[in-house]
Amino acid sequence: MSAGKTGIIIGGGASGVLLAAHLLRNPDPDLRVVLIERQGRFGPGLAYSALGRDHRVNVPARGMSAFADEPEHFWHWLQRRDPATYANSWTFVPRRLYGAYLEDVLRQAGARQPGRLRVLSEEAEAVRQTAAGVEVALANGTSLAGHWAALAVGHETQPARGKGIAVRAGSDRDTPLDADDPVMILGSGLSMVDAWVSLSMAQHRGPIIVVSRNGQLPQAHEDVPPLAIDSADVPLGTSLTYLMGWLRELVRETRASGGDWRSVIDGLRPYNQRLWQSWPAREKRQFLRHVRPWWNIHRHRLPPDLHAGLQRAVNAGQVTLIAAEFVGIERSGGGVRATIRPRGTDRRDRIDVARVYDCGGVSVDVRASGNPVVRHLIQTGAARPDDMHIGLDVDENCALIGAGGAVSSRIRVVGPLTRGRYFEIEAVPDIRVQCARIADSLQAMR
Questions:
Q1: 12 and 109 inside one domain
Q2: What is the pLDDT of residue 2?
Q3: For position 304, what pLDDT does the model report?
Q4: Are residues 368 and 351 in the same domain?
Q5: Which of 38-42, 137-141, 254-258 has the lowest mean pLDDT?
């Protein structure tokens, strides 16, 4: 492919596929896309590779279209596959099925525009801006030239804590356990639910101890409409304390009139990115430290039946929630001894289990990135971390900002790596809007 109007997307998970699909909607026959993915599978990525039937998307099908201007695209795709099962768009599908949908979206985009899409099962090691465009170096020793590049590498999983003793659920080290073995899970968010689902699928009977700072489960979805909130009523630019007080009062008023708190949280969604951007660094840090655990369990909810099953396990005593800080871990006989500090105490409790699962979520410090492209960009000064170090610094067009403050004219960033600017940019409903905007700006590039 000539570099003239060729764009190179690094990362073939959801963010990369959505950006490619939006770009290929443009009828310009000279606009071409190269999509690079080291895993060799384009679409599922880390987020949508889970194989279990109950490893499900936590957004109903009606909200998971690849295209914001075609909101029923995914639901119609489901209906064509199985109209009896998917007669209602209020359904939460297995993540593997959504991964198949993304694969199909990419396949259809390429078929509609023959010769304009090229997919490469390779690992990108570096991207450099050149006088004519960009050059992407591959691990196989070759390189690609393009007009522009987009970094869409998605989430990175942190190494498991505890000197390599703790285990990531679903990893090669997650070998079969005796059904009666006690286990501990660090973290109580959606990753913890995935680990519990895997244990349940294996018919695990032993006790499961869930340790997290807040000691609370994610809430359940309900099919309620979002509250209509006027932008003039949203306290943009105020303190975090004021915002939380305003939000609690709005929830009280909504409940008093017969509504549901979920309507408030969902009604606020269109303003979440603007709220984040309206805060100074101090307010953002306070949110990440003190409010995010509470926000996550209300904002990132579970399918109702999955939540009910987990709650039954808690009520039956198989799953025990402990609000505590994880202190350390060591091997003990044939098992593991974990040390925790219960919230509000100086006590150190030691608990013996067969295995500790680390479900603390995805890596949030970009300086510790394991991705060679991200490391190279930061090391060479072509990129810099955002103020929170939770992603790369980008401008309003998602253009990469270098160490000296210069804005790249050829390199864009899409998806979770832009969370420092947008915070809420990890779910498909947000990423698809970002991809549409980036696609428009790239197509206008000279």
A1: yes
A2: 46
A3: 96
A4: no
A5: 38-42
Shared domain check, 152 and 131: yes
User: Are 414 and 19 contacting, i.e. CB atoms less than 8 angstroms apart?
Assistant: yes
For residue 163, what pLDDT is reported? 75
- Determine what percent of the chain is predicted with pLDDT higher than 70: 97
CA-closest candidate to residue 434, choices 370, 385, 374, 391: 391
> Domain holding 49: CATH number?
3.50.50.60
Mean pLDDT to the nearest integer, 246-258: 98
Q: Is residue 176 part of a domain?
A: no
Q: How far apart are the first and last CA of the chain?
A: 18
CA-based torsion, 164, 44, 49, 120: positive or negative: negative
Paired with 138 in beta bridges are 124
| pLDDT tens-digit readout, 413-423 | 999 999 999 99
**Residues linked to residue 320 through DSSP beta bridges, in sequence order:** 209
Tokens of 370: 């394991």
CA distance 435 to 20: 9
Dist. CA 156–CA 428, nearest whole Å: 17
pLDDT digits (tens, 9 = 90+) for 262-278: 999 999 999 999 999 99
Query: pTM score, two decimals?
Result: 0.93
Same domain for 94 and 136, yes or no, is yes
